[in-house]
Design brief:
It is built from seven helices and seven strands. The protein is α/β, with parallel strands linked by helices. The chain has one domain: 3-Layer(aba) Sandwich (Rossmann fold), CATH 3.40.50.720.
């Protein structure tokens, strides 16, 4: 069985926390790379602190991680949103969101690539978003999440000869604390979102964690370059058949 260490970026809360809990249940050892420490460090979890918007800090922490751990699985989960229309989007927004949502995943993949190639095995999972298909008030965010899909497909082709799979997951509306803080359950906005979801419920962080777990498995070696939308059917009809 391949090395059981998993690196999760942004693992101290929300979807990342659910991913870590699921991976621990599945018997993995976890490296949580996050700017802030989790409220409680779980058994089997090691936390490394770094600001992933800082390129040099990211490179430095990855050197420490790869020195201490033979990491062959990674989930690029860290990301954030700066909502705004095209008219309101600023270059500061663009640079900040790109630094975390696009540049950091590339640096993480570059840092772990030598270990994966040497082992002839690897799993890279990038957390994208259904916003990659287009969403109002998401000019910058949707651009980064669509860009992440392009990198996913490119890395899949480049790393396939080494036994490394690269896939993406596109969450729909997920009831994280951050989402619910801006979308209270009884608000008209939240109710409208709920009505638009074919399965008629919000997604839970555990829904994303389950999808991640399946792609991390040793037996998932024939799935690469794909995006799995975990959205309750919300994206059906939005993508091209190709």
């Amino acid at each position: 069985m391949a090395e059981r260490s998993v690196l999760v970026t942004g693992g101290s809360g929300g979807i990342g926390r659910a991913i870590i809990r699921r991976c621990l249940e599945d018997g993995y050892q976890i490296i949580n790379l996050d700017r802030v420490a989790p409220a409680t460090l779980l058994n089997g979890e090691t936390h490394y602190q770094a600001d992933l918007t800082d390129a040099q800090a990211t490179r430095d922490v990855l050197q420490r991680i790869t020195r201490d751990h033979n990491v062959l699985r990674v989930i690029n989960n860290a990301g954030f949103i700066r909502p705004g229309t095209l008219e309101d989007a600023t270059l500061e927004d663009f640079d900040a969101v790109c630094a975390l949502n696009l540049r950091a995943p590339m640096l993480v993949a570059q840092g772990l690539q030598p270990l994966m190639q040497a082992a002839r095995f690897g799993r890279i999972i990038n957390i994208s978003s259904r916003a990659a298909l287009g969403k109002e008030l998401r000019t910058v965010y949707s651009a980064t999440k669509a860009g992440l899909l392009g990198m996913t497909r490119t890395w899949a082709l480049e790393l396939a000869p080494f036994g490394v799979t690269v896939n993406a997951i596109g969450p729909g509306p997920i009831a994280t604390e951050l989402f619910l803080s801006g979308n209270p359950p009884e608000s008209p906005k939240t109710k409208k979102i709920l009505e638009s979801i074919p399965v008629k419920r919000m997604g839970e962080p555990e829904d994303i964690a389950h999808a991640v777990a399946s792609l991390l498995d040793d037996r998932a070696g024939f799935i690469t370059g794909q995006v799995l939308y975990v959205c309750g059917g919300l994206t059906v009809g939005l993508g091209q058949v190709a």
